[in-house]
Amino acid sequence: MNLLIMGLPGAGKGTQAVKIVEKFGLVHISTGDMFRAAIANQTELGLLAKSYMDKGDLVPDEVTNGIVKERLAQEDIKEKGFLLDGYPRTLEQAEVLTAILKELGLKLDAVVNIEIAADKLVERLSGRIINRKTGETFHKVFNPPADYNEEDYYQREDDKPEAVKRRLDVNIAQGQPIIEYYRAEGLVHDIEGDQDIELVFEAIDKVLSNLK
User: Fold this and answer.
1) ω before 145 within 30° of 0 (cis)?
2) 118 belongs to an annotated ligand binding site
3) Helix, strand or coil, per DSSP, at residue 83
4) Residue 183 catalytic?
5) Catalytic residue among 80, 89, 140, 160
6) Which residues bind AMP (predicted)?
7) CA 58 to CA 64: how far, in whole Å?
8) 71 is in an annotated binding site
9) pLDDT tens for residues 133-191?
10) Marked catalytic residue, from 50, 160, 165, 167
11) SS3 for 133?
């Protein structure tokens, strides 16, 4: 089974990816892991990616796509199947991924799309506070400190509601065309993410078990 998982920041994508991989025995392919492996193995594309990263530049699509292709061509993918996480990030990358899979004799079976309303995600992501003395992290709603008072805690700039909303807007604008691309292929399964972690996984498990 070959899967793609999608969801906005804070939707719980990482948590559910781990659960899917454990249950179905898939190879978890995240963009970060792929880059690190290609650089550590000193592949031609890995070294090329590193040269951009060392300069603080974005890695061009053709290099990223090449690293994805290298990873998907490895033997463990054919044996176990994969869960792709963090790629594609653009519609162009999605179209390239379709071509890569076709070339390798693979196909995508489903796109798991974890959905939560943006205002709920702002609440989740902008609630993080940090203790000035200890550096401990808490959440105003989900994990409040027993001794909360405003003087002893602060918020990082990128955790403030305005910054979180901007980040989500960018992600929505990037992700929507990809979702629609796969929806047209009949591959998207929308999962309600605003519920207990175990209930989210139950819904995913039901969808994926029916695919097998």
Assistant:
1) no
2) no
3) strand
4) no
5) 89
6) 31, 36, 57-59, 86-89, 93, 156, 167
7) 10
8) no
9) 899 999 888 888 988 888 899 998 888 999 999 999 999 999 999 999 999 999 999 99
10) 167
11) coil
Distance CA 78, CA 60 (A): 27
Residues 81-100 pLDDT 10s: 999 999 999 999 999 999 99
Is position 89 annotated as part of the catalytic site? yes
For this structure, is 166 an active site residue?
A: no
Structure confidence at residue 6 as a pLDDT band (50, 70, 90): very high
Other Cβ atoms closer than 10 A to 43: 16
14 SS3 class:
helix
Q: Measured between alpha carbons, how far is 42 from 63 in angstroms, rounded to an integer?
A: 14
What does R_g of the chain's alpha carbons equal in angstroms? 19
Catalytic residue among 156, 166, 183, 206: 156
Q: Is 43 annotated as a binding residue?
A: no
Q: Is residue 58 a known part of a binding site?
A: yes
CA 1 from centre of chain: 18
13 is catalytic: yes
193 is in an annotated binding site: no
177 annotated as ligand-binding: no
For the question of residue 167 being annotated catalytic, the response is yes
